[in-house]
Structures are given as C-alpha cells and as structure tokens.
Design a protein that fits this description.
alpha/beta, 9 strands, 6 helices, seven-stranded mixed β-sheet, 203 residues
C-alpha cells in the first residue's frame, strides 16, 4: 500500500467517530476564515477545502457566503460530509493531483491536512495549489508546529489507523511555498497558521 492508501483507509476507519468527536475548531479559526472570506470576496470563483474531512470546515466557509468545493482522499469522510452537509459540493480526490482546472479557485484552505503527507511530497501539493489558484488568490494553511514526526496507529475512539503526523515550522513551510510561486501574506494569525498569495500577472 502507498501512503495515500494508508491515509485513505485510516480515515475511512474513523470517519463517523471523527465527525462526532471533532466539533470545535482551533482558537482563531473564525478570524482566519473571516480574513480569507474578505480576501476572496467578489471573485466569482469557489474556495477549495483541501482535505475537508467530514465537512466541518467546508460548512464554516459556506456560512461566510463562499462557494466551497471540499476534497478529501477518504471516501468514508466524503460520505459523512455529504450526509451532514447535503447542499455542499464534496469530492473524493488528492491534493497531490487535483482534478480541477488551472486558475479555477479563488482561495484554498488546507486546515491541518498537509500534516500526513511525506515531507518530500508537500512541494507537490503546493505546486498543485498554485496551479489551481487564480491569480490574486490566497492559500490558508493550518499545521502542527514543530520538527518531529510520529506514527499514529489508532485514534478517534480507538479505531485502527496507519498514518504519520509531520510537524512543521513556519519558516520551513514558507520556504516551500515561496519555491512553488507563492508570496507570504502579512497577517496577525497564530504561529500554526500561514497565509500566502498568488500574485496577479502584470503582463
């Protein structure tokens, strides 16, 4: 099995319990989503919730009058998301190979969803984010702060899992994002959140 298979099957195992247990967001979540909504307002394009899980964050973005496309690797998570939020657009897919046209979204939220990707794969995800993001669009990341990696074998009610959790520092992620073509966006968000922009062409 590949790491993608492990992530997908692990979150299939916990999808129902995850939705029941993870009901509250992190501190400053509302402020971060408010900022993103303000920055993409009037674009006419949707916002991508990359690694949307059971749709909790997608629903919060939709509450801010955003048109949201939620994508997750786990079919089980997407099934729960569609059950709980039937009016929203959810799709099974990978952030490393997004089935979206170039420049088609105004914003991307990757809310603690890059943490399971192998470190050498994160640049591939950032390249995909940059590709599908429209010029002038923004990328909002949430992540665990640190440098260590751990192997998670169970969770969310004791269900079996086989995934790795990789912590990141803001400078390390910023370096990768800049290499992918992003520009850091000044903000007062906490250290476990980063905001980047895709500069509009002046040509």
């Amino acid at each position: 099995m590949t790491y993608l298979d492990d992530i997908s099957s692990s979150y299939d195992n916990v999808a129902v319990s995850y939705a029941e247990l993870v009901v509250d967001g992190a501190d400053w979540e509302a402020e971060a989503f408010d900022l993103l909504a303000k920055l993409v307002a009037g674009s006419g394009r949707p916002v991508l919730d990359a690694g949307c899980g059971p749709g909790r964050t997608s629903a919060l973005l939709a509450e801010r009058d955003l048109r949201v496309v939620g994508i997750d690797l786990s079919p089980g998570m997407i099934e729960v998301a569609r059950r709980d939020h039937p009016d929203l657009d959810f799709r099974v897919g990978s952030m490393t190979a997004l089935d979206l046209p170039d420049g088609s979204v105004a914003g991307i939220v990757a809310w603690w969803s890059i943490i399971h990707l192998p470190r050498d794969v994160v640049p591939q995800a950032f390249a995909e984010f940059h590709r599908v993001l429209a010029p002038g669009g923004v990328l909002l990341l949430g992540f665990h702060v640190g440098t260590e990696s751990t192997h998670k074998t169970s969770g969310y009610g004791g269900h079996p899992m086989n995934i790795h959790v990789h912590r990141w520092t803001a400078p390390a992620l910023t370096e990768l994002a800049v290499a992918a073509g992003f520009t850091p966006y000044p903000s007062e968000l906490p250290e476990d959140r980063l905001l980047f922009g895709k500069v509009a062409s002046t040509a």
